[in-house]
Write a structure and sequence with these properties.
The protein is mainly α and 168 residues long. 61% of the residues lie in helices and 0% in strands. Helix 5 packs across helix 7. The longest helix has 28 residues.
Length: 168
């Protein structure tokens, strides 16, 4: 069940930067400009984008790189989403779950992306499952709540979880 919950963020994980330096590029801007925006469902990214003129150069660069990655993901999976997932409303992982359910039928480029996302999700799940069980067992899954719970316990997370936990 927990692994499926992590899959909800399926395509957005690929848009996350991989280096710790890049992950921290927007941290100060988010803390300053978006402190009232709860994590999940792209609210912090949306907030940052709404304050684009106030962002640091490093954060602007990070957002641009994330946008470019998201556009590549969309381009790779859009035909499959249109073919297999008509009528599925994006959000809360519905589109990602639909693509996953058609994994064997996906075009090679989209299939590769879904595979990478699954591998990333598995990595985060394995590294953070004990922390999620310890800190978030009363948290209702969905809407970024488990991630927000883990984020609220960031200082107390195990080293393996800290090493892979998305910082955005």
């Amino acid at each position: 069940m927990m692994q499926r919950i992590f899959f909800v963020a399926v395509l957005s994980f690929l848009a996350l930067p991989t280096s710790a330096r890049a992950q921290d590029a927007c941290k100060a801007d988010a803390e300053k400009l978006c402190k009232d925006s709860p994590p999940g469902e792209g609210r912090i990214i949306g907030c940052l984008k709404s304050h684009e003129s106030d962002l640091s150069a490093a954060c602007k660069e990070q957002l641009a790189a994330g946008n470019a990655r998201r556009e590549r993901v969309k381009a790779a999976c859009k035909p499959d989403a249109e073919k297999f997932c008509q009528g599925i409303q994006p959000g809360d992982g519905h589109l990602a779950a639909c693509l996953k359910s058609h994994e064997s039928e996906l075009a090679p480029s989209c299939h590769e992306i879904v595979g990478k996302v699954e591998a990333r999700i598995h990595e985060v799940h394995e590294a953070c499952k004990a922390d999620a069980a310890k800190f978030c067992q009363e948290t209702q899954p969905g809407g970024g709540r488990i991630r927000a719970c883990l984020k609220s316990h960031e200082a107390d997370l195990s080293e393996p979880c800290k090493a892979v936990f998305p910082h955005k």
